[in-house]
Write a structure and sequence with these properties.
heterodimer; A: 11 helices; globular; disordered N terminus; B: alpha+beta; 6 helices
Chain lengths: ~230, ~260
C-alpha cells in the first residue's frame, strides 16, 4: 500500500503555472513570429473583405476571437471521443454552430452591425485559421492550452485586420471609427488641412497593398524567409 | 471500437441533436428581442427619410417608438391608388406589417403598397410629407428604402436606403447619410408631369445641383447605383396612380375587399 502511494507521488509532476513560459508562447507566438495572416498566410479572404472600416472590423475581430476560443475549447474537450474518420465534419459542425450563435446574438443586440456584417460573419466558417487551429492544435492538446492557442491566433488575426482597416479607412474615407480625422485636426490647429480620399483603398486592391506592406515591414524586421 | 461504423453513426446523431437543440433554443430565446430590433429598425428607416440621421441616432429605442407613434400615420393602397383596408383573407391590413420584400416577389398588380404620412405631432390633418417604401436589387442582393415626398408630391424631402449584402465601403455606401443627402430637393416628375424619378450618374464627384433628376454617383459601385435607379423608377411608377389621385384631390377612401 505505502509503496504505491509513494510511487504515485513521484509520478505526479508539479502543476504547470497558469501562465508558464510555454503557455505564454502559445499566446504571443501567433502575434508576430507565427502570425496566421502574415506568416501562415491564412484567412486572407476575410482580411480583404471586411477591412474597409474600423468598426465592422472590430466586430469581426471580436467574433473571430469568440468562435476560435470556443471552438478550440469544444473540440479539445471532445478530442478523445471524436471518431477520426469524421473529425473534419465534426469540427465544421461545431464552428458553424458557434458562428450561427454569433450571428443570432448580433441580430438581437446589435442590429445595425448585423445588417452590415451578417454576410461576413457567416463566412467565418470558412476562415482557414479556425479549421487550421482546430485540426492542428485542439485535437491533440488539453482544453486550457487550446483556449490560449485559440486566443493567441485570433488575436494575431485581429491586430492585422485592425491595422489594415485603420489605414484603409484613413486613406480611403478620411475617417477612423467614423470620425473625420483631417477635419478634426484642422479644427484643432485652425489650419486648413485635408487629404483627398483614395478610392483604391476602399476596394479590395487597397487591402492587398496594405497587407503586402505590413508583411514586407514585418519580414524585414524579423528576417523571416519562406522555405 | 471508436472506428466502428456504429460508433461513428451514433456519435454523429448525438452531435447533430445536441447542436440542433442548442441552435433552436437560442433562436427561440432571442426571437422576441430580434423581432423588436427589426421593428425598431424599420421604424427608424421610415423616420430616417424625414429626419436627420444624427438626431435619430441620438434617440433611445423607446423614444424612437414613441415619436413614431405620435408622428406617423399609415395606410395601404393598391396599384390603382385606392386605399385597401383588408387583405385577401379579410384581415385588417397594417401598413407597418406589410412585408415589402415579399410583396416585391408578386406581380405589381397584386402587391400592397404602404404609404406612411409624417404629420405634425398629435395632429394627423397637418401632413408634412408622404413616405413611400421602395424595393429592388443591387449588385449582390436586395436593396430597399424609403422615400419621403413633400406635400407637392414631387420634391424629395429625404431618402433612406438599406441593403442586404452590398459590398462594404462600395455599394454599402447607399446607407451613408452623405450619399442619401444627395437626393434631397430633387424632383421625381418633370415639368410635363411625367415620372422621371431620380438617377444616380456614373462616376463620382460632379455637381448636379442644377439638375432635378440627377444625383452624383457611387464610384466603384455603379451596379448598386443602377439598382437604386431602377428601384426608384420602378416602385414610384407603381405609386403613380396614388400620387396622381392625391394631386388631383380625389382622395376619398374606397373600400375594396
Amino acid at each position: 500500500m505505502s509503496t504505491e502511494t509513494a510511487e504515485k507521488a513521484i509520478d505526479k509532476k508539479p502543476a504547470e503555472a497558469l501562465l508558464s513560459k510555454r503557455r505564454k508562447k502559445l499566446v504571443t507566438d501567433p502575434l508576430v513570429d507565427d502570425n496566421p495572416i502574415t506568416i501562415q498566410v491564412l484567412g486572407i479572404c476575410s482580411a480583404l473583405a471586411v477591412t474597409t472600416q474600423m468598426q465592422p472590423t472590430l466586430v469581426m475581430a471580436i467574433s473571430v476571437i469568440f468562435v476560435l476560443v470556443m471552438g478550440n475549447l469544444t473540440i479539445s474537450l471532445m478530442r478523445n471521443i471524436i471518431p477520426t474518420r469524421v473529425r473534419i465534419i465534426v469540427q465544421l459542425a461545431v464552428v458553424a454552430t458557434l458562428v450561427t450563435l454569433v450571428n443570432e446574438v448580433l441580430k438581437a443586440f446589435a442590429f445595425d452591425m448585423y445588417k452590415e456584417l451578417s454576410v461576413f460573419i457567416g463566412l467565418i466558417i470558412t476562415n482557414c485559421i479556425i479549421m487550421g487551429r482546430l485540426e492542428a492544435f485542439a485535437l491533440g492538446n488539453k482544453p486550457y492550452d487550446s483556449i490560449l492557442d485559440g486566443f493567441g491566433s485570433a488575436l494575431g488575426y485581429s491586430w492585422i485586420i485592425l491595422a489594415v482597416a485603420f489605414f484603409r479607412e484613413l486613406w480611403g474615407s478620411g475617417t477612423v471609427f467614423g470620425i473625420p480625422v483631417f477635419d478634426t485636426i484642422s479644427g484643432l490647429f485652425g489650419e486648413d488641412f485635408s487629404l483627398a480620399t483614395n478610392g483604391l483603398m476602399v476596394s479590395p486592391v487597397g487591402a492587398f497593398i496594405i497587407l503586402g506592406l505590413i508583411i514586407w515591414v514585418q519580414r524585414t524586421k524579423t528576417g523571416y524567409v519562406e522555405h | 471500437m471508436q472506428q466502428s461504423n456504429a460508433y461513428v453513426i451514433t456519435f454523429s446523431v448525438i452531435l447533430t441533436v445536441v447542436l440542433g437543440l442548442l441552435l433552436s433554443g437560442t433562436a427561440e430565446l432571442l426571437g422576441p428581442i430580434q423581432k423588436k430590433a427589426q421593428e425598431l429598425d424599420t421604424k427608424k428607416q421610415i423616420l430616417g427619410a424625414v429626419m436627420d440621421g444624427d438626431e435619430l441616432g441620438a434617440m433611445k429605442p423607446e423614444e424612437v417608438l414613441e415619436y413614431y407613434d405620435k408622428t406617423i400615420s399609415s395606410k395601404v393602397v393598391n396599384i390603382d391608388g385606392e386605399e385597401i383596408e383588408n387583405d385577401r383573407d379579410g384581415n385588417p391590413l397594417v401598413a407597418e406589417n406589410v412585408n415589402v420584400a415579399r410583396n416585391y416577389k408578386m406581380k405589381p398588380e397584386d402587391r400592397f403598397y404602404p404609404v406612411f404620412m409624417y404629420h405634425e405631432m398629435g395632429n394627423e390633418e397637418n401632413i408634412k410629407s408622404f413616405i413611400l417604401p421602395v424595393h429592388g436589387f443591387g449588385l449582390w442582393d436586395e436593396i430597399w428604402g424609403f422615400l419621403a415626398l413633400q406635400t407637392d408630391l414631387n420634391t424629395i424631402e429625404g431618402v433612406t436606403f438599406s441593403h442586404k449584402g452590398e459590398t462594404p465601403g462600395l455599394g454599402a455606401r447607399i446607407t451613408a447619410s452623405s450619399v442619401q443627402n444627395r437626393f434631397e430637393g430633387k424632383m421625381i416628375f418633370d415639368e410635363e408631369g411625367n415620372l422621371q424619378a431620380v438617377e444616380m450618374q456614373k462616376g463620382e464627384g460632379r455637381d448636379y445641383s442644377g439638375e432635378p433628376h440627377k444625383v452624383d454617383g457611387l464610384s466603384g459601385a455603379t451596379i448598386t447605383a443602377n439598382g437604386v435607379n431602377k428601384m426608384l423608377k420602378n416602385y414610384l411608377s407603381h405609386y403613380q396612380a396614388y400620387l396622381d389621385k392625391k394631386k388631383s384631390g380625389e382622395d376619398a377612401p374606397v373600400a375594396l375587399n
